Amino acid sequence: MTKDFALRILKLCNYLGDEKKEYILSKQILRSGTSIGANIREGIYAQSKADFINKLSIALKESSETEYWLELLHESGYLSDAEYKSIYDDNSKISATLINIIKKSKTSAK
């Protein structure tokens, strides 16, 4: 799920650079959008439950930041309504999943 999302972010950044000549926001969303999956991957090999929760919490923060960059790209006219909605919905699903996992992990850690 997050690797597919990262690939979508990579394609989005290529599109923004090639078609829209936008380079500043695309660098920001490239960093945050691909970091989500990387932090989850780190969490898989966490040294403790607390470390796992921390890594997933970082991934959630990156997802929130990605949401912000998507909103800016949409509101500035770089993304159409359809383009925005599609990738925004995917990011929202990732956020919701992370919130659920973090909550369950915190509950089981008590």
Structure description:
- The longest helix is centred in the last third of the chain and has 29 residues, at 81-109.
- The protein is built from 4 helices and no strands.
- It is elongated and about 50 Å long.
- With 110 residues, the chain is mainly α.
- The chain has helices spanning 2-19, 24-44, 49-75, 81-109.
Order of helices and strands: HHHH
Q: C-alpha Rg, in Å?
A: 15 Å
Major beta sheet summary: none
Instruction: Look at the structure and give the mean pLDDT.
Output: 96
Contiguous runs where pLDDT drops below 50 for at least 5 residues: none
What is the CA–CA distance across the termini?
Answer: 29 Å
**Overall outline:** elongated
| Quaternary structure | single chain
Number of helical elements: 4
How large a portion of the residues is in β-strands, by DSSP E? under 5%
DSSP summary, beta strand count: 0
Estimated structural class = mainly alpha
Percent range of helical residues: over 70%
List key phrases describing it.
110 residues, mainly alpha, 86% helix
Summarize, please.
The chain is mostly helical and 110 residues long. It has four helices and no strands. Helix content is 86%, strand content 0%.
SSE map:
Elements: H1 2-19, H2 24-44, H3 49-75, H4 81-109
Helix pairs in contact: 1-2, 1-4, 2-3, 3-4
